[in-house]
Inverse folding.
């Protein structure tokens, strides 16, 4: 059965290989991930129309872009299940880094906005957050385009390179993604400091997502560069290692970040959102103190008005009496003279 499958499908034989079932398992997880991501995209589109708080709404376009990146990651998994050839190699080397850079850039932009919100400041506009995410990921796109163009102009050297050279180039291309991951990790830690507790839960989600992603990346890069060679499983295990890390990280993005964010967004819509721009609600004691002051002002305003009018009238009478006395004294002096 295995030989028939291999002969009939060629580079696609992992899609139907029942002996090495990693291909079937990963393509199933990737297909389910695509369906779930599309459903989450539709849910975000539905909830975006019901959010009235500017601080919440400003990050929704960036999260929508993040979901598009996750959708691309699930689709990219099929390029690693299919064997490396002249068609799949450019797709792997270009999209892997670009899609992960886009996802981590969106997380970085969200974390940067949270740094302001947890300190009670006004949120960035949605265009600013979106431009930060796109702009930060643009460098990885340029790097990947230059590398793939250079290799393709030399006659498609992917199929002629040794497995070790392919792995080294693949990891070196991801140095900027590793930098973005580390930067997002440290920025998300700064969201723990601030008086506004309601925004810190978003920072904790980003922190947990990036932390688990770092662990995944350390494991798969170690296996790709050292583990497979020491276990004498190179290049047989190279594609499965990368594909497992890819699908796992995409599911981490969904389960640790997007799904909790969607739940928070849904609860805020159900409970009723605060006024636009209200980035940090006042503490309970301060709200009650202000309410008491407002009530006292309303109660005292009529009395204060009457007192003011009486004082004004009394002052006017005194001034009039004084003026009359001055005039009378002048008349007396004139009569005496």
């Amino acid at each position: 059965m295995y030989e028939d499958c291999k002969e009939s499908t060629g580079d696609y034989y992992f899609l139907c290989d029942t002996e090495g079932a990693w291909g079937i398992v990963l393509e199933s997880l990737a297909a389910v991930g695509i369906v779930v991501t599309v459903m989450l995209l539709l849910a975000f589109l539905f909830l975006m129309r019901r959010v009235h708080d500017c601080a919440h709404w400003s990050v929704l376009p960036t999260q929508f872009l993040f979901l598009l990146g996750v959708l691309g990651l699930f689709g990219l998994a099929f390029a690693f299940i299919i064997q490396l050839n002249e068609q799949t190699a450019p797709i792997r080397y270009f999209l892997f880094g670009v899609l992960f850079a886009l996802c981590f850039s969106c997380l970085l932009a969200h974390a940067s906005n949270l740094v302001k919100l947890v300190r009670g400041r006004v949120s960035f506009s949605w265009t600013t957050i979106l431009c930060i995410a796109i702009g930060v990921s643009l460098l990885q796109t340029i790097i990947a385009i230059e590398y793939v163009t250079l290799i393709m102009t030399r006659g498609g050297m992917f199929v002629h390179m040794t497995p070790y050279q392919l792995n080294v180039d693949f990891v070196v291309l991801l140095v900027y993604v590793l930098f973005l991951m580390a930067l997002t990790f440290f920025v998300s830690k700064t969201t723990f400091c601030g008086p506004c507790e309601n925004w810190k839960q978003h920072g904790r989600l980003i922190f947990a997502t990036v932390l688990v992603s770092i662990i995944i990346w350390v494991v798969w890069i170690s296996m790709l560069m050292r583990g497979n060679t020491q276990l004498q499983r190179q290049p047989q295990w190279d594609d499965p290692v990368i594909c497992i890390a890819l699908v796992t990280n995409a599911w981490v993005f969904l389960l640790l970040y997007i799904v909790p964010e969607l739940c928070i967004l849904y609860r805020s819509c159900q409970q009723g959102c605060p006024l636009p721009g209200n980035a940090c609600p006042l503490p309970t004691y301060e709200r009650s103190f202000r309410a008491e002051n407002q009530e006292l002002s309303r109660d005292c305003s009529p009395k204060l008005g009457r007192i003011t009018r009486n004082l004004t009238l009394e002052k006017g009478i005194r001034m009039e009496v004084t003026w009359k006395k001055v005039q009378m004294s002048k008349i007396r002096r004139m009569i005496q003279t």
Notes: The chain has two domains: 2-271, 282-337. Residues 2-271 form a domain with the Rhopdopsin 7-helix transmembrane proteins fold (CATH 1.20.1070.10). The radius of gyration is 33 Å.
